[in-house]
From TrEMBL, chains A, B:
Protein name per its UniProtKB record: TetR/AcrR family transcriptional regulator
Pfam families xrefs: TetR_C_6, TetR_N
Domain HTH tetR-type: 10-70
Superkingdom of origin: Bacteria
InterPro entries for this protein: BetI_C (IPR039538), Homeodomain-like_sf (IPR009057), HTH-type_TetR-like_transc_reg (IPR050109), HTH_TetR (IPR001647), Tet_transcr_reg_TetR-rel_C_sf (IPR036271)
DNA sequence: CGTATCGAATACGTTCCTGTATCCGACCAG
DNA sequence: CTGGTCGGATACAGGAACGTATTCGATACG
């Protein structure tokens, strides 16, 4: 059966990816080695090179997988929201893209890496756009339910992503500071407000 | 003269730092080696170890130096602004913290690095706060001149930094997209607007 | 069953990098 | 001019990681 991979192979691959996630989070991608990943996964380097041609390739595969999963999580979390309760919908949207320390470290380093490689950069930009476009409709419909309409959806999307990323660093740098978290949420509200206008009631 | 360093030593040190900046920007801190830095600087590893005990130490020194310089640049740029021209003051403030590709890559990686190390994390958080507090007054006085007062300065400061960082990534990922840059500036204006309220005229 | 194939393990040579211990030259003081 | 010291160069031994070529065992299939 061409195009199929054996279960054995798939399991090995997955364990390598999982191990790599841990190693990258602990020592950073740059400082990670093929050997460390293999040790952690319980395989030898032979197994690694039978599945990936380089650490870079694995890195990309890992990022694809994780960001796809996150995108799925977001879509799923937003699929069964209560249309009558826009407040909780927005809360669900924010919760769906949580500030995860380890994952932030990895994406930060991957972003830096991607900025050095035009091909990767485009892949990353596209993925960012996909995530933005998945989340955006939720906010738009929620706002509509609150009697507000969004004029420029792209602008709102970019603003939300920027605020999400920018404030995530602050929250992670000062994890014990409740005020920082509060300001983060306030900023979200302010942006939603600034990018939508009250509708004439029907 | 205790506490002093010879000129020769200072020059060597500086050349090593400059070379390191280039190397880090090109291959990333994690993938950089002592040898690469020395080759680039035109020294041997002996000179390196006579100045730094490890790449990590140099990395920290480099970041200190650069971020201090940037802080100085900001302060200087904002020292001689025209008080009668708040528009250009804000423009100067934005220009003072430019979106520099190489520098962004390094700080991104350093941030990830710092998040793994509580001591470094606190150093970084303090530095971020210093930068924020240096820029903040400019915006506050500029807004006042425009007849608006800022109620919560900390909130505005955090918001500006978050927007700056969050949108910087977007700009770097889509360097040719003018719309992204435009949205970035619009977001700045929106934030300035949201975090200030019109004053009763005197 | 037996056999063919697939995938992980092994083993190898090589390159790169590390850190230290020592050397040598330049610069300064007297 | 001369001795001392400071700072970068040299040299050395060791270790880590790489990528490949090959082996060997397991699994699927006739």
């Amino acid at each position: 059966m061409p195009g199929t991979v054996s279960k054995r192979r798939a399991r090995t691959r997955q364990r390598l990816l999982d191990a790599a996630l841990e190693v990258f989070a602990e020592v950073g991608f740059g400082r990670s080695t093929v050997e460390q990943v293999c040790d952690r996964a319980g395989f030898t380097r032979g197994a690694f090179y039978s599945n990936f041609s380089s650490l870079d390739e694995l890195f990309l595969a890992l990022w694809e997988e994780r960001s796809a999963r996150m995108l799925g999580d977001v879509r799923r979390a937003l699929a069964d929201i209560d249309p009558a309760d826009p407040e909780s919908a927005v809360r669900a949207a924010i919760a769906a893209a949580p500030v995860d320390d380890a994952w932030y470290r990895i994406t930060a380093e991957f972003t830096a890496h991607a900025l050095r490689n035009p091909g990767l950069r485009r892949v990353m930009a596209a993925r960012e756009r996909a995530i933005r476009d998945a989340i955006l409709p939720v906010f738009v419909t929620a706002l509509r339910r609150l009697g507000r309409r969004v004029s420029d959806e792209s602008a709102l999307g970019d603003a939300l992503v920027a605020v999400h990323d920018g404030t995530a660093v602050q929250v992670l740098l000062q994890p014990d500071d409740a005020a920082v978290r509060a300001r983060r949420e306030a900023l979200f509200r302010n942006v939603l407000d600034a990018y939508s206008t009250p509708m004439e009631s029907a």
